[in-house]
Design a protein that fits this description.
It is a single chain. This protein is an alpha/beta fold. The chain folds into 2 domains: 120 residues, NAD(P)-binding Rossmann-like Domain (Rossmann fold); 194 residues, Dihydrodipicolinate Reductase, domain 2, CATH 3.30.360.10. It has a 9-stranded mixed β-sheet, with helices on one face. The protein has a 6-stranded parallel β-sheet with strand order 3-2-1-4-5-6, sandwiched between helices. Helix 5 runs antiparallel to helix 11 and helix 8 crosses helix 11.
């Protein structure tokens, strides 16, 4: 069987830890890699036999290679142009999250996918973590009953990214809400059956990233004067069907934990958490905590890539669907709008 040609746009952190190792583990692919700093791409390519060529211009790469599948691993503000160009060139696209900085941009991207007859899927790798899969299976069996409340938590005590330009609006369009909050929000909505959001009330704060003393703690990895996104956010999301979510995301805050990435579900028959992976319910009239033990090693990136390769080959439908990604996008953008306006905002259906 002929190898599938894959192009990766961007040789940064997420390509190093997720996309390229995922394609290498899957096998059956020939990868071309692009980065505006070719030396970075060359150094990464040298570690993987599946990489056949390196480019410094992604437009040139797509035109010359005509890949069947493209991973877009650029700054959030650059996703739209690269994804649409790849889709129009005939490729299926796996795009890092959030797929776009705005609802309008995301709509244009999915419209391009529809016109081209190709798949655009958001790279929500947390769906493939063992804990997430175990809890989702319990939800699908009906063990939790009607899930009416949830918490989507993505908190770091001191975890401002020290690579790239994550801390600048012109590149990332947002801070931890876009960076890690998007993962837990997607995971939570997916487990709840993707109920539509009705209203969002949110706050965002920048309390640490623009402080020279905090940057100094991380070895001066970023310029605090250029830090112009939030480093903390919290939102209350009212959903259709009398459901609700509390969303929290931080890169830096005085917390008791170093990091917590967790979904909490509260249902009429049971509750659940992904960290620790457990179900909470009554047994014989007594409250119990039933932990999932002996879960397999977390290979979420590998499983995500293997899944999308199967999607590109026409073997399965994408796990992360357009309507789910658009629901997440609307909520995130509404949260930023609410914080800016200082009031609750309504999400149009």
């Amino acid at each position: 069987m002929t190898n599938l040609k894959v192009a990766i746009i961007g040789a940064g952190f997420i390509t190093r830890i997720g996309h390229l190792p995922g394609y290498a583990a899957a096998g059956g692919v020939d990868v071309v890699l692009c980065d505006m700093r070719p030396e970075r791409a060359e150094a990464l390519a040298a570690q993987y036999a599946c990489v056949t060529k390196v480019y410094s211009d992604w437009r040139q790469m797509l035109e010359h290679e005509r890949p069947a599948l493209v991973s877009v691993c650029l700054h959030n503000q650059l996703h739209e142009e690269a994804a649409i160009t790849a889709l129009e060139g005939g490729a299926h696209v796996l795009c890092e999250k959030p797929v776009a900085p705005s609802v309008a941009a995301a709509e244009r991207m999915f419209a391009a996918a529809q016109r081209a007859g190709r798949v655009l899927m958001a790279a929500q790798n947390f769906r493939w973590s063992p804990a997430t899969m175990a809890i989702k299976a319990a939800v699908d069996r009906g063990e939790l009953g009607d899930i009416y409340y949830a918490e989507a938590t993505a908190l770091r005590r001191l975890g401002i990214p020290t690579w790239g330009d994550f801390h600048q609006q012109r590149y990332s369009a947002g801070g931890p809400l876009f960076d890690i909050g998007v993962h837990m929000l997607d995971q939570t909505l997916w487990m709840m059956g993707n109920p539509a959001a009705v209203t969002v009330s949110a706050v965002t704060e920048r309390r640490f990233g623009d402080r020279p003393d905090i940057a100094a703690v991380r070895g001066g990895a970023w310029d605090p004067a250029a830090f112009d996104v939030e480093d903390f956010a919290a939102a209350f999301i009212r959903l259709a069907g009398s459901r609700s979510i509390v969303l929290r995301a931080s890169w830096a805050a005085h917390l008791e934990m170093t990091q917590l990435m967790c979904t909490r579900l509260v249902g009429t028959e049971a509750g659940a958490t992904t960290e620790p992976p457990a179900i909470y319910r009554l047994r014989d009239g007594q409250p119990t905590e039933e932990r999932f033990t002996n879960l397999p090693q977390n290979r979420s990136y590998e499983l995500e890539i293997a899944h999308f390769l199967a999607v590109a080959r026409g073997e399965i439908a994408p796990l992360v669907r357009e309507e789910e990604t658009m629901n997440v996008q609307r909520i995130l953008n509404a949260a930023y709008a609410s914080a800016a306006l200082g009031r609750e905002v309504t999400i149009e259906p």
